[in-house]
User: Fold these one by one.
Assistant:
Number 1:
Amino acid sequence: MRYAPVFFLLGILSLIAPVQAQVFTRDMQVEPLIASAGDPVRGRVIVASRQTGLCLLCHSGPFPEERFQGNLAPDLAMSAAKLTAGQLRARIIDPSRFDPKTIMPAYYKTENLKRVAPKFAGQTILSAQEIEDVVAFLVSLNQQNVQ
Ligand code: HEC
């Protein structure tokens, strides 16, 4: 019965896992955060927005109308070409899972954050729907690349 404690722990984990909103499998979160499908058109607006997404502060992407784009992070079209929807979603939800020292904010995380102003405590940067919209937009870039 050497393995009994391991099975016991796995049993407990399998009870806990379903109640967690974010279930990562390896390096991806396959399950969308919300049942309604993401809208790539809204996602594009969020990514380009200087108020909500702020992605172009660090990233570049296929946005001919945006003059100033970041060069601190990979081009979003390149990332979309190599990552699945689940991998993209996981990196937007919480990039610190992949690099604890990353400068990229965790867009859907409320715990273990540093330097959060009290009025924003307990809030995510983007809503579940907005995360899905951004993922849908990035995935649509990939399809455009393939065609
Ligand atoms: C403050 C800078 C910053 C902002 C803002 C930012 N990112 Fe990032 N992002 C990075 C950096 C730097 C990386 C490279 C990996 C790392 O350091 O985490 C990265 C990595 C990624 C990756 C993985 C790329 C790859 O090829 O592996 C994705 C996808 C991504 N970001 C999407 C986004 C989206 C979508 C937004 C906006 C909602 C955003 N990022 C906002 C800095 C940023």
Note: The mean pLDDT is 86.
Number 2:
Amino acid sequence: MSEAPHLTFDLDTPGLSTGHLVVPKGSDCEALSLPVFSLNKGEGPRLLITGGNHGNELEGPIVARRLVEWLPEAQTCGRVIIVPEINPLAVQAWTRNTPIDGKNLNRVFPGRADGSATERIADAVSRLLLPMADTVFDLHSAGPTMDFPPAVITHPIADADLMAKTLRMAEAFKLPMTLVWQYHDTLGMFDTWAHSQGKVFICAEFGGGTVGAEALAIYEAGVRNALITLGLVEGEAEYPTFRQQKSSRTLETLSSDLLRSPTRGIFEPRRSVLDEVKQGDLIGVLHPMESLSADSIRVRAPTTSIVCMIRSGGHVDADEEIVYLARPLNL
Ligand SMILES: [Zn+2]
């Protein structure tokens, strides 16, 4: 019998304290020690901030570590727990999934104590960290293959009250897009599990394959806005500037708004994220590499909509996701 997951320090310690979340060893790897920062200023909101759920999305770990620099000073009340890299195995490998078991941490919640490495991480987070929070910010980004505006994402939640609270929290980031995503594959998501436990769960997203200073500043500003709205820090929430604009849109994307690649090839985007398109407008061109003809396949908008995510890198296989469209949220 291996040891149980545990923290190496007491989260109730006042002020800033640091230690590790220990994920027990299993047959596939040794025990893992995840750095944890606990900022305890007493009564108030209880927030858990996680990065590195997907290992090739580095904005989250970077912004989480930037928060550790200024939040201990700025925080006026409540409790914040920050885990910059909840899947260190994937972050080290710069891969979406955990290399040793091939699993996506964001599909195995609440995890299993006797499972593989990814499942043991989810189990430790579910048992020891999630119960300590009422609100969770899970900091993702779109990874190296998709362009995506700075955004916060949530999924439709059956509990109307939790849905309304979650949407209010999401909009408090004041990022260019708040997206309610009717996603086809939500089983085992950290989001879904946290929602089932009555938590407000916000997933921050950011596009692009490279980490840049401007993008990080917008991302961090969004998190700071949310911290202000929660009442954890003082200050005034402001829309960050994105493409010379300070604005925000709340959109929804349905399963039917996803366009898939008709064949293998190189996708050439002809539109950018947040562009409005009319039915029949050209969104992109797919160049099949095997073809001797110069005929490329034109990908057009099936309906009047807004481009919310578009393939920006990598050769695509047939039936892979290339474009997500969206429309203003109609509650
Ligand atoms: Zn992600």
Note: The domain at 6-252 is CATH 3.40.630.10 (Aminopeptidase).
